[in-house]
Amino acid sequence: QVQLVESGGGLVKPGGSLRLSCAASGFPFSDYYMNWVRQPPGKGLEWISYVSSGSGFTNYANSVKGRFTISRDNAKNSLFLQMNSLTVEDTAVYFCARASWKQPEFDSWGQGTLVSVSS
Amino acid sequence: QSVIRQSPSTSGTPGQRVTISCSGSRSNVGSNYVYWYQQLPGTAPKLLISRNDQRPSGVSDRFSGSKSGTSASLAISGLRSEDEADYLCAAWDDNLSGPVFGGGTRLTVV
């Protein structure tokens, strides 16, 4: 069955960096767009980035552009999010999610990993 | 503040039919597919309605979606206690060149 498992979350100080990972299994990983979506505590969802199936295209929300970098390793069925210059507004649960194309048709999600930015 | 607006909350009684709406603009809901997600407390979202009105495999036919102009709706018939959750819509936004979510509607079954 399709499985997405995020890791790498934790507590970091403002201005710090963190790298999230998402391990995928149960489907042909290289055939799918992969996304990161976050949810601040008690708030709604915010899409923040996607990478196309072949890594040829990436896209970012304005809120993270220039600070976050999405990447994937199709040989290892893994998705990554490098987060730099973190601020308290980046505090959220970060989900990885699968889609067949760039549209927000996220048909599988991980359980999420919590990133807390605090001094 | 999301570019797609949803009422923060709604409620219904068991067996009732409820409708949750999302209101966008020409750049998102008006010109792109709308997707609906159900998020039960403490869990990841689940795709409920795809491409305006398509139910993914395994989703109950009590859930249905529709779109008209720059608004979309999710209807839930035969309301059950287990439907108590947050419901969010999403669409591609041509101006932002990326997906956007509505703020979400919390459904309470009283």
Topology overview:
The complex is a heterodimer of chains A (119) and B (110).
Chain A: E1 3-7, E2 10-12, E3 18-25, E4 33-39, E5 46-51, E6 58-60, E7 68-73, E8 78-83, E9 92-99, E10 108-109, E11 113-117
Parallel strand pairs in A: 2-11
Antiparallel strand pairs in A: 1-3, 3-8, 4-5, 4-9, 5-6, 7-8, 9-10, 9-11
Chain B: E1 5-6, E2 9-12, E3 18-23, E4 34-39, E5 46-49, E6 63-68, E7 71-76, E8 85-93, E9 98-101, E10 105-109
Parallel strand pairs in B: 2-10
Antiparallel strand pairs in B: 1-3, 3-7, 4-5, 4-8, 6-7, 8-9, 8-10
List keywords for this structure.
heterodimer, A: 119 residues, mainly beta, 7-stranded mixed beta sheet, 0% helix, B: 110 residues, 6-stranded mixed beta sheet, 4-stranded antiparallel beta sheet
Beta-strand share of residues of chain A: over 45%
Low-confidence stretches of chain A: none
The largest sheet of chain B is: 6 strands, mixed
- What's the total number of strands of chain B? 10
The coarse overall form of chain B would be globular
List SSEs of chain B in N-to-C order: EEEEEEEEEE
* Spatial gap, N to C terminus of chain A: 40 Å
What order do the SSEs of chain A take from the amino end to the carboxyl end, as H and E? EEEEEEEEEEE
- Structural class given helices, strands, pairing of chain B? mainly beta
Characterize the quaternary organization of these chains. heterodimer
Query: Structural class, judged by helices and strands of chain A?
Result: mainly beta
Please report the number of helical segments of chain B: 0
> Which whole number gives the mean pLDDT of chain A?
96
Number of strands of chain A: 11
Enumerate how many helices of chain A there are, as a single number. Answer: 0
Using CB atoms under 8 Å apart, which protein chain pair has the greatest interface? A-B, 22 and 28 residues
- Over the alpha carbons, how many angstroms does the gyration radius of chain A reach? 13 Å
Helical content band of chain B = under 10%
Radius of gyration of chain B: 13 Å
Q: What is the typical, i.e. mean, pLDDT of chain B?
A: 97
